[in-house]
Structures are given as C-alpha cells and as structure tokens.
Amino acid sequence: MTVTGIIAEYNPFHRGHAYHLSRARELTGADYLVVVMSGNYVQRGVPAMFDKYTRAEAALLGGADLVLELPLSAACGSAEYFADGAVDLLIQTGIVTDLCFGSECGDLEVLSEAASLLADEPEEYRSSLRRHLRKGVSFPLARAMALQEALPSASPDILSSPNNLLGIEYLKALKRRESGIRPHTIAREGNGYHDLTMEEGDYASAGAIRRELIHSKGTFTKAIQAQLPSPGIYRSYEGKAPLTEDAFSLLLLQRLRSIQGTSLDSFFDVPEELSNRIWNRLDEFTSFSDFAKLLKSRNLTRTAVNRALLHILLDIRRYRRADHLRVLGLRKEAKILLNLLSAHGRLPLLTGLSGSSLPEHAFYPDRLYESVRSLAHGIPYQNEHRRKMLIV
C-alpha cells in the first residue's frame, strides 16, 4: 500500500493545492494522501487567516484523505524547523511511504544534490560560506553563493525560491534520519509564491488571495471564489475583516510590557540583536505589523522578526517535535487509516482533546486565537476541548 505525505499550510486551500494533491496521487500511485498541516499559526510568523478546521475541511474536500496537525513550534519556525517537524511527523505515523512536495524547479536530482551538500557541509562549502560572511554579506545570500560555488549545476537562485528551499529542507530531514520515505517533487504551476496578482485562469498564490480579501474587506469576490475549489466552506468568513497579525497587536504589546526589562533569550529563535532592538524601540510600538517592519534589519528579515514576536506572544521557549498524532479530519472512505495509525504509529493518536493528558499550557495558543477570532468576527467562541475531528 502506498501512503503519500503532503506538507502544507492551505491558508487558504486553492486550486493550485487541489492540482498538487491530484498530481501527487497520480505520480506516486497513492492509495491514500496524508496531509501534515499547520494549525492556527503559520510559518510567516502570523496567525492563519482561516482557522485550522476550516482549512482541514477544504483539504479533505479537495483530495486529501487525512489531515494531521503540525506541532506549533515547527509550524511557526524557520524553513529548517518547519521541514524537520513535518518530516518527523510523517515518519512517526509509521505508514507514510512517500513524500510529494511542490518546487519551482521541479528537478528532484538537483534538489537532492543541494540537500546532500547542505546536510554534510563539506569543507569547501564551509570555507566559501565563511569567506562571504566576512565580506558582510547576509547569511541567506552567503549560503546561496557558497552553494553555487560548491555545486555549479544548481541554479544561482535555487535557495531564493521558497518552495525549492522547503523542498531542500525536506530532503535534508529525510537524509539525516536515514528514512525510507521516497521523495517526489512536482513543478509549481501558475503564479509564484510571492506573486500577489490574480489573473483569470491562473493558479493564484495563497498570498494573492489573502491580499485580495484584505483589499475587499472580507468580501469573497468572483475572482477569489474562482480560485477556491469549495468557496462555500468560507461562508462564516464572508464580509468579516480578515484576521491578520494586527488583530493581536494589543496582546503583543501587553505581553512585551509585562516582561519589559527581562532577557528574551529564553524564547525560541530570538537572537540577542533582536532582543536589544525590541527593548530599544518598544515605545514606538503602534501595531504588530509596523513594529515588525521597524525591527527588521540587514541580518533580520521581516519574517524572522514576525516569528520571534509570535514566539514571545505565545510563550514558545524551544523547538519541540510532535509527541502525539493529532487528527484534524478524515474522509469517510479512509477510516482504515485510523486503524493503521493506531497499529503502526509511534506516537499516541488523538482524534479529540476530551480526556487527553496534554498539559494545560499546550492549549493557550489555540485559546488565544479563538478568543481573538470570536471577538473580531462577532461569533461564538469555539472551545478546542469540545471539537472533534472532522469526517467528510
């Protein structure tokens, strides 16, 4: 039996994602598709615009058979942590045989060569990296330049394309664990990850859809609906102000004021340079997004700053791999997967939180997200403990 793993955010799930699931099933001959998906916070260091249950339902209706939740510190971590946490979760299922991811280049051989080099870091590469860093080049650029010198067959911009970068990190994670999971890649179709345009007939990026929703103040225009395989899923979001990091601005400011004067080095991935900048410029805080812009520098990207601020807000102290398999949703026809996960999974299987032994602090991030969403959208609060896995 072939069980293919997919790693995703689906914020929101769009036509390009549906295409990827269909091609993954075809390419790998999958009997089942298991998706590892971010929860209520995503890798850009912001809250998801759509809650995890809505996104899981869209994925199941769009071709996935089962959706597992990616642990929080991986979901809002850098590419390396995101990939490590997701690949580890796929391995812990004990049933996933293949991994299929999208990439800009679509060439598994080139990505695998780059992954092997970056995982092993031979002296030629490390020497080149040190030389570029001494010249004052930022780490991402120095790494790309060193990779190009050590691996001339790789495109000069291979590490600047986000899906290529994630693909390389997935391959590194598989290599480091000596996993038998077989990797596959599919060339990305339609607009690029950072392309914010929406042209009729194209696969728009999730970023473009989110941007259009913000511009329309939550109105799902015909252009937006055309990009969503199941637009009716989002009816509870229609006409509501899209949820962004700025809905958490006052909470972040309160959090920073409550710990002002203390060291921030105990929080996950908060470097000393950023800690100093936070305290030096806190009086200039006006919103989450504006503060992140204010704090970014040559060595600190906006996304890295977002992630650090989110880690502080949610009290994420260190990176943690999964200690359970949390099922968000399942297709009726794929119920056998629950039996297989129970029999072969290497971690406890959770289909709901009622009666779980998880520590109380583990629920804080979701409680905060739902509190903000319910107040911002004027809807009843959804208690995570009362939510059951979706079955469609």
Summarize the structure in words:
The protein is globular. It folds into two domains: 3-104 and 187-242 and 321-391; 245-314, no CATH class. The protein has 392 residues and is of the alpha/beta class. α11 (249-258) packs across α14. It has helices at residues 15-28, 52-61, 72-75, 79-93, 108-120, 123-134, 139-150, 162-176, 206-215, 222-225, 249-258, 272-281, 288-295, 302-314, 336-344, 364-377; strands at 3-8, 32-37, 41-42, 46-47, 66-69, 98-103, 182-187, 325-330, 349-350, 390-391. Helices cover 44% and strands 11% of the residues.
Major sheet description = 8 strands, mixed
In terms of per-residue confidence, which ranges show pLDDT below 50 for 5 or more consecutive residues? none
Mean pLDDT over the full residue set:
93
Question: So what's the overall shape?
Answer: globular
